[in-house]
What we know:
By secondary structure, the chain is mostly helical. It has helices at 10-13, 15-44, 49-60, 66-74, 78-99, 103-131, 137-166, 168-189, 203-219, 221-237, 240-250, 256-278, 286-307, 310-338, 344-352, 355-372, 375-398, 405-412. The chain folds into 2 domains: 1-195, Growth Hormone, Chain: A; 202-413, MFS general substrate transporter like domains (Growth Hormone, Chain: A). Helix 7 packs across helix 14 (310-338), helix 10 packs parallel to helix 16 and helix 12 runs parallel beside helix 14.
Amino acid sequence: MSTSRNGFLLLRENGPFRALWMARTSAYFGDFVMLTAVVLYFFDVGASPTQLGIALAARVVPSALGPVTGALADRTDPRQLMILCDLARFCTLGVIAVFLPPFAVLVFLMFATGVFTACFAPASKGAVPKLVERPRLAQANSLLGVSHNLALALGPVAGAVLFDYAGAQAAFGLNAASYLLSTVILFLLLPRIGLVVEVQHNLRAFVGEVRDGLRYLVGHRVARTVAIALFFGVFFAALDNVALVFLIQGEGHGGPTAVGLANGLYGALMVVVPLIIAGSGWRLGGDRMLLLGFALSATGLLLVGVAGELVLILMCYSIAGAGNGLENIACDTAIGENVDSNVLGRVFGAVYGPILIAEAGAQLVSGPLLEATSASTVFVVAGCGLFAVLLLAAVMFRNPAGPGRETTAQAKV
């Protein structure tokens, strides 16, 4: 494989990675179409906010199974597991599209879709370091970041337009079709990746692998640091989800258009940053990239809280978006560069699984904090919290827990 400086050449030179990129792009698009279609459908049929919350929770709760689904990814050929998960998601969304079932059945199908997504994620993330040379992981993950963020921007629009003009069944049908396309791409274009080690196919061995994966994560300096930093980073960064509209509209800086513009600029920078990294010769390691991402996010959110003028708020919020885009790439790159191939699935699953708890905690805290103080204060707290996470991560990256601990943990897996 080439070591060209231009990351976009990966898509031309590395056929297996190109196939994975195409499949994940399609799946990402389907994920965000589904999110919009579900919200619009429940509102359209007169469901209560509680019912909508239950449906959305059913979709994401399975991500908490990350350590288990990660262990499954490590004992299965990633290609085979991704194909099975995409095919299963096509079936669950296909049933929703055809029948528009009652609430209880739809929630069950949403939960099942979430389980298959939770299995797909560590398999797909763990496949990248097996297909791409580690010096080029940052560029590969940047290309995937571009796909994810573009899907985040375009998927909801496509889902909403289709829902508006063709109805709920068409929107859910598009979602199902995106998973079917991913299945076809993986089946036809991605070669078998295979397993790094042989596994024992029994429940006791599987439970042992889950335990060993968690032990590996705790004992591995880089993986441990990424897990802790990502959890608390997501918590503080998510505080702005509630506060933004109150800052801009509630404090008289602008109307709904200004809120939309702020979110649009935030999302745009999340696309631009991966594009820059993918097209450049960036060789900064994943750990330093993560610290830089936290620095940008913390600076942006802190300055939003003290900006005072709409133009400055938009500029500073864009800085936070750039930091978020960098963090997303950095986490996958740091793990891919440093974690052993035979435990990648378990580490990715354990790192990303608890994010749901961090996001939920942020939503529970941000409302009361906003009522007790102000929207500006919430942004200041978020920025200061991210600076604390930055300092913690910098110390943890530099200082292993103890002599030989990392090596011991790896040897046990």
